[in-house]
Specification:
The structure holds two protein chains of two kinds. By secondary structure, chain A is an alpha/beta fold. In chain A, 43% of the residues lie in helices and 11% in strands. In chain B, the strands form three sheets. In chain B, strands 3-2-4-5-7-6-12 form a seven-stranded mixed β-sheet, with helices on both faces. Classes of the chains: A alpha/beta, B alpha/beta.
Chain lengths: 342, 319
């Protein structure tokens, strides 16, 4: 099975989406310093994983679904959610995507197929399988993409779900974004496969499904790998586990602190905990966003001027999202009681 | 009307809804392992499936299927098996509608038996009703009669929210009249099982027949007890209970759970807050002892509320 590469126009679209995710999240990060107190609780950034997110979602069709984790800003942006509504949600405002009830960790946009995000590691994996069961019954050739991190593959929910998904040949693709760290624990410290020098994709073998490892910083490689898995799923051949290797370019999240302590993003745990500044700087040199821009400019798909124009357009779009969100009012307090029951 | 046991009435409720709505699914462990299984034969293997022993995935899959527009019923057999998947029951299913600002619905039914105090010892006998009643976003149902078993199951399946449907194992073979054809019992409407003016007894599940038996004994002593069965503990029909308290001024609350994990503790608090002045005596709770359920028969009986204890509590509040 082979998936033809995306055409030039599509590749430029992919680059633009990667840039939109990066720029949106730079604005989230900058909010902590520009507008202290506006973002509460915990946020998690996808910087470093943009190529993986965009490469995976490039195959998304009407009727498909995606479910993800608390690190969820990237997916809805690619699926067409309004960054103004997303930023307003991160700021807890009335115009938020989820009316200010979910926040950064629980972005949801059902109209665009982004069904839900669980903040509990691994818990969303069976939800994706359930949505895939619905797709299987409806027989419209739809698939479900389940996004989670390497840490989730140590949860029972992961193993139970892969077993059933394979047994039932559910049309689901499990995309494990392996960023090498479960907060401040390295994979080798918590994963028997990793400790033995094996890729985490070998876990698929236990469940009789293909397991592939792909360079998650290369959008075209992810496009190929996830595309093949999606074709397989649409064709009724069941699930695939795709291990997409990325490097998280920010810390796990902003600092966890009681009220009164200004929130901010510390340096990456590779530096703060393990003292491996060189590991982090090497990852930074391989940053997938400028790298893909370089590829497109070098092969003549995009001129430097055109790339700059895209960057400036995206910067404006995300700056507008910040301005919109800051001006959005807080929701009416009574709305806190409105959505417990349908 | 047909005479049938409680267990058959539950199935009748599931059949009623699976026949009318192709979106209803039914699945669980050791269910539907042959094509001759009555539900597979009727509705096909797309909608009726056997699962491995994977409660987290079973309930999680139900949540995902529900978010995608289906109406799953998960057969869990024992309420304790939900504890294996507590995150999915308490912190996933009831959260998605809220956190998405009302974008999704999660219509599913978690069907489980409880309270199997017939020698099942420490881990299969819990009365976990109250454990779930305080979770915003969850509805909790505990039928005590065959008719309610059917009607509440049908309503649970049609409800657009996650519903924990707890059927009592000790009532499994209890016979009763069950309405034929489409039958639904509304949530949040308590049933007055026996009208009376001297004392209000509130009981759920297996404690309902025990409370009724006590009321019969007390009637011979000239005491006229009102017995209320809330039928659903979330939503709880506090209004019917408070109205009865206005009339009687005396209250005995019965629950098979240990006291601090009981529905009665919640009801007692509400009565104290809202009807303090109507009370002529302190509220008395008749609950299980604060203990793991023992295996040996006389010990098991010793720790449970029974007819004699309920009757004694009534006599005490009437003193």
């Amino acid at each position: 099975m082979s998936v033809p590469p995306p055409n030039t126009e599509r590749q430029i679209w992919m680059f633009t989406q990667m840039l939109r995710i990066r720029t949106f999240e730079e604005r989230v990060k900058k909010t902590f310093t520009d507008h202290p107190g506006v973002i509460r609780g915990h946020t998690h950034l996808a910087d470093g994983a943009e190529a993986s997110i965009v490469g995976s979602l490039s195959h998304f069709r009407e009727g498909d679904a995606a479910l993800a984790t608390y690190r969820c800003h990237g997916y809805p942006l690619v699926l067409g959610s309004d960054p103004k509504a997303m930023m307003a949600e991160v700021y807890g405002r009335a115009d938020g995507l989820c009316k200010g009830l979910g926040g950064s960790m629980h972005l949801t946009d059902v109209k665009r197929g982004f069904l839900g995000t669980s903040g509990i590691v691994g818990a969303g994996i069976p939800h994706a399988a359930g949505a895939a069961w619905a797709a299987q019954i409806r027989k419209q050739g739809n698939v479900v993409l389940s996004f989670f991190g390497d840490g989730a593959s140590k949860q029972g929910a992961f193993h139970e779900t892969l077993n059933i998904a394979s047994l039932w040949k559910l049309p689901v693709v499990f995309v494990m974004e392996n960023n090498g760290y479960n907060v401040v624990t390295t994979s080798a410290q918590e994963d028997a496969n990793a400790a033995a020098g094996e890729p985490l994709a070998v876990k698929a073998r236990s469940y009789v499904m293909p397991g592939v490892t792909v360079d998650g910083t290369d959008p075209l490689a992810v496009y190929q790998a996830v595309g093949e898995a999606i074709e397989r799923a649409r064709g009724g051949q069941g699930p695939t586990l795709v291990e997409s290797k990325v490097y998280r370019l920010s810390a796990h999240g902003n600092i966890i602190a009681p009220p009164g302590v200004p929130l901010h993003y510390p340096e990456h745990e590779a530096i703060t905990v393990f003292g491996k500044r060189e590991e982090y700087e090497a990852a930074l040199r391989g940053d997938p966003v400028p790298r893909f821009r370089g590829v497109l400019v070098q092969n003549g798909s995009l001129t430097a001027a055109k790339a700059d124009e895209i960057s400036s357009r995206v910067a404006d779009e995300m700056q507008e999202a910040v301005a919109f969100a800051l001006n959005s009012p807080f929701p009416k307090v009574e709305s806190a009681l409105e959505y417990n029951f349908a | 009307m047909a005479q049938m046991p409680y267990i058959a009435a539950i199935d009748a409720g599931i059949h009623q809804e699976m026949r009318r709505d192709p979106d209803v699914l039914y699945f669980g462990q050791n269910l539907a392992t042959t094509e001759n299984h009555e539900f597979v034969a009727a509705y096909g293997a797309d909608r009726v499936r056997v699962t491995p022993i994977s409660e987290t995935a079973e309930i999680g899959i139900a949540i995902g299927a529900a978010m995608a527009g289906l109406r799953p019923v998960v057969e869990l057999y024992m309420a304790e098996f939900m504890l294996v998947a507590m995150d999915q029951v308490v912190n996933e299913a009831p959260r998605f509608r809220y956190m998405s600002g009302g974008q999704v619905k999660v219509p599913l039914v978690l069907k489980a038996g409880y309270g199997f105090t017939a020698g099942w010892a420490g881990q299969h006998t819990g009365s976990l009703t109250a454990l779930f009643m305080g979770v915003p976003g969850l509805k909790v149902v505990a039928p005590s009669t065959p008719a309610d078993a059917k009607g509440l199951m049908a309503t649970a399946i049609r409800d657009d929210n996650p519903v924990v449907y707890l059927h009592h194992y000790m009532l499994t073979l209890e016979q009763g009249e069950v309405p034929d054809g489409e039958y639904l019992v509304p949530f949040g409407k308590a049933e007055v099982r026996r009208a009376g003016g001297d004392v209000t007894i509130v009981a759920t599940g297996w404690m309902v027949p025990r409370a009724l038996a006590a009321a019969q004994t007390l009637a011979k002593e000239g005491i006229n007890a009102e017995v209320i069965d809330p039928r659903t503990v979330a939503p709880l029909d506090l209004e019917t209970i408070l109205k009865s308290v206005d009339k009687t001024g005396r209250v005995v609350l019965v629950d098979q759970a240990p006291r601090h994990a009981s529905v009665t503790a919640m009801i007692a608090a509400d009565i104290a807050e809202h009807r303090f002045k109507a009370l002529k005596a302190p509220v008395v709770q008749v609950t299980a002892a604060d203990t793991t359920v023992p295996y040996s028969e006389p010990l098991e009986a010793y720790i449970l509320p029974d007819e004699a204890r309920i009757a004694a509590a009534v006599r005490a509040v009437l003193k």
